[in-house]
Amino acid sequence: MKTLIVFYSRTGTTRLVAQKIAEMVKGDLEEIKDTKNRDGIIGFLRSGYESARRKLTVIAETKYDPAQYDLVVIGTPVWAGNISSPTRTYMVKNKDRIKKVAFFCTLSLKDAPNIFKEMKEACQKEPIATAMFRRKDVIGNEYADKLKEFVSKIESQ
Ligand SMILES: Cc1cc2nc3c(=O)[nH]c(=O)nc-3n(C[C@H](O)[C@H](O)[C@H](O)COP(=O)(O)O)c2cc1C
């Protein structure tokens, strides 16, 4: 199965997970590049505001065409309980070019109850698998079991 892993990452956590998934499924990796400065407290506040309000941003042109893949795996950090605005922008732009989708997110808290519902609505597609990874587990490299479970779900499709 030809798989594309698409992610946005502000501070590297989501990138680590995306890279691991790409290695495990031998997929292509697409990093969403945002054009806004999200550094410092202003960047943090702007990011939270945009995500909570479901606002879009301007992202750089992407490398791969999702329509060329059997499955697109999309990963985002949770911002204000919601999809990071760069990831939402990618989803809205590409939803009609995605056949099958799987979602993952990284987050600091224990849960983000609405995140996959929001991702599903933004993509207008039911995911074949979802997974949530806590930042502390990713940084501490204690997420192998959860990752394996997610990847085996993807590969069984
Ligand atoms: C603007 C902003 C808002 C955030 N809101 C939440 C939140 O609502 N819930 C949560 O668990 N983590 C929240 N976080 C933490 C990130 O989701 C978490 O650190 C994530 O793993 C960062 O991913 P990254 O390193 O790929 O950018 C927020 C981070 C930022 C920058």
TrEMBL record:
Gene3D superfamilies: 3.40.50.360. This is Flavodoxin-like domain-containing protein. It comes from the Archaea. InterPro entries: Flavodoxin/NO_synth (IPR008254), Flavodoxin_CS (IPR001226), Flavoprotein-like_sf (IPR029039). Pfam families: Flavodoxin_4. GO terms for molecular function: electron transfer activity; FMN binding. Residues 3-157 form the Flavodoxin-like domain.
